[in-house]
Amino acid sequence: MAERLNKPFKNLTSRVKNSASVIQQGMYYNLFSEGFDISPNLNEVYELALAYYESKILTKEELIKNSAYFVKIDNIFTNHYFICTGDPVKIPEYSSSRLKSFFINNQFRTGYATHGLFPYRGKFHPQMIKAIINIMGVKSGDTILDPMMGSGTVPVEAALMGINAIGIDSSPFCQFMAQTKCDALKITHKCLDGLINMYERLFSDFNSCQKKIDAQRPLFFKNNKLSDEADREKIFNLVFLAFLDSEGYAQRSKKKSHIEYFKSILERYITAVNKIAVVEKHLNITPAQTSLQMDDARNLDIESNSIDGIIFSPPYSFAIDYLNNDLSHLRYFEKNILKLNDNMIGMRGKSLREKYNIYLEDMDKVISECARVLKKDRFCTIIIGTNDSQLSKALKINKENVSGLNKIVVDIGLSKGMSHVRSLPRQIIGMANTMRQEYIVILQK
């Protein structure tokens, strides 16, 4: 009898010891193999999931070369570690402590390479995109498509991974911004030396010549003798993007003059470009080809069954008015800005309900095109916000009864012959009033 009474206590002691052992080992011990050092500040479930998938899908050699969420494999530093360390984003002294803290805490997520050139609302975390490219099985020499490339995160990340990229966007400003970021990966190291000393003349040229971008190039090349003539078009675009960036800052804040903003932003751009050039040389990285076009995602000029992977995020047009946000920059690229509405998904229509209905029609066409150009067995990943608040207003029903856009795109994908592999939820920071969550929806042809 005494033996039977003591048995539960022995089991309890054993469980307590086992609990202590499990807690001491930590979660990573059971998720990842020994020698897999995960990147710092990883604190969201979707990040942990993507890291886990990377560890199971990639070889150790591939993890060292292209992984997103690991800094060391068997004590060998990964390429992502070298790309992200140091100070690629030069923050001006007058920047808020919140902004400085953001870049410190997100050193491995965003802002590295040329991703930090020009802040753009709704842009991807590059680290997340790199991991998605990996788990989709897209390899060096393959071709990836982003039919709604925005600021160019997918083509920039793909280029650094040795993956050819096609990027499409209906906005001429987005096409310019993305092209500038990709081209900046190929600017000859040190060819920007001395450029910052010319900031006053550069600012004067752009500020006094409020004309279309093509009209400003001749003046720039005439007034500025560049150290490397082969890179002069890339340098012009880089400087002009810095000017547009400074223009936005000057409109939002009066802490500094426009020219002071321009100087600090141009200095930051030069630092970022020189930094990635050094890393590319050290790691023997030759950025892959990128073809970035201003076109319509609903009617792609791409051969059927030719694309190895697709990643895109449909515009959050119910939450963000992209046309209005980019208005001051678009005037340099487009004479009739209102006609852009015809090709911008989510912008057409008068009432919210009409916009929503047209949005669904457009998304059906976009996903149909994605299914057409994608190779068999390959993946299409759509990163889309739930947008429940705006949809509730548009449909005049309670939020609880709204079918999220993530479910809608899955249904569209199924109707085009694709299968739904997985959806990973991700919290959205900074847009809580309009959108709290988005989903990484993975479809397979």
What does it look like?
The N terminus is likely disordered. 42% of the residues are buried. The chain contains 18 helices and 10 strands. Helix 9 crosses helix 12, helix 10 runs antiparallel to helix 11 and helix 11 crosses helix 12. By secondary structure, it is of the alpha/beta class. It is globular and about 70 Å long. The longest helix has 26 residues. The chain folds into 3 domains: 57 residues, no CATH class; 216 residues, Vaccinia Virus protein VP39 (Rossmann fold), CATH 3.40.50; 97 residues. The strands form 2 sheets. It has a 7-stranded mixed sheet with strand order 6-5-4-7-8-10-9, with helices on both faces. It has a 3-stranded antiparallel sheet with strand order 1-2-3.
Mean pLDDT, to the nearest integer, reads 83
The structural domain count equals 3
**Spatial arrangement of strands, main beta sheet:** 6-5-4-7-8-10-9
Gyration radius, to the nearest Å? 24 Å
Say which CATH homologous superfamily of the largest domain is assigned: Vaccinia Virus protein VP39
| Poorly predicted regions | 1-5, 98-103
Give the count of helical stretches. 18
Q: Total strand count, please?
A: 10
The general outline is globular
Order of helices and strands: HHEHHEEHHHEHEHHHHHEEHHHEHHEE
CATH fold-level name of the largest domain: Rossmann fold
